Amino acid sequence: MEIVEKISEVREITAEMRRKGLKIALVPTMGYLHQGHLALVKQAKQEGTFVVMSIFVNPIQFGPNEDFSRYPRDLEHDAQLAREAGVDLIFHPAVEEMYPQKNRTTVQVSELGNALCGLSRPGHFNGVTTVVSKLFHIVQPDRAYFGQKDYQQYLIVRQMVRDLNFPIEVIPVPIVREADGLALSSRNVFLTPEQRQEAVVLSQSLIEAETLIRQGERSVARIEDKIREKITTQSSGIIDYVEVRSAENLEKSATINEPVLIALAVKFGTTRLIDNYVVEV
Ligand code: PAF
Hints:
Layout: E1 2-4, H1 7-19, E2 24-29, H2 35-46, E3 50-55, H3 75-85, E4 89-91, H4 95-98, H5 117-120, H6 124-139, E5 143-147, H7 151-163, E6 169-173, H8 193-198, H9 200-214, H10 220-234, E7 238-246, E8 260-268, E9 271-279
Parallel strand pairs: 1-4, 2-3, 2-5, 3-4, 5-6
Antiparallel strand pairs: 7-8, 8-9
Helix pairs in contact: 6-7, 9-10
């Protein structure tokens, strides 16, 4: 496995692989890898592709008061995990390589970003779609893999690919959870032991909501209230949002009559966690 920092090197290597007839897979990450990222690699490997993993903490998707500078980074450990998982090439550019001069072009997907994380993190998804389209142009993958923990991100990238005719298949990969249900996230390292214990309430409240829907509850307001009540009574978490929306286009309705996304974002101290469940009805 090679680690390269220059766009020209990625282009050379991927062109060579394409000449050899291999399909190229891209697993875009911000590093500090965990089993959730490795599940993306595993799926890419099963499909027999040359797997490129990008590791780049993208400054333009962080707001001024967000955790860009303290976002965890550990390239050596990432490289070890990536190698063991079968990644073929790591692209680890410096900020100056990706943004050598002032960026004047932004890729913006309308509507899908005007809800959930898009409301509490203004500009975040424009930063994501801009860097992902740059990565798509640099790596020119046949397939790109995105974790469903960032479900809204997955929908937005899928829409961008459709709208801008990228010849790329966007593949969603299910959330990987700890044994007690907490969704894996690079930010979990910031939780204190008490917050870590309390954070299990997130997946538990989602499972309860899913059960209620399966038992026939169709009121979006009642489901959201149940989740809010559980989180506020059983933890110190401060709710950013709890929402039930269409799993296809994030539209909101009062009753559930199509597959829905139950999504939440909750702050434990300074650490903001997100989680979700998709429920087919
Ligand atoms: O999901 C992430 O880690 C990031 O948003 C991504 C897709 C790598 C873009 O920076």
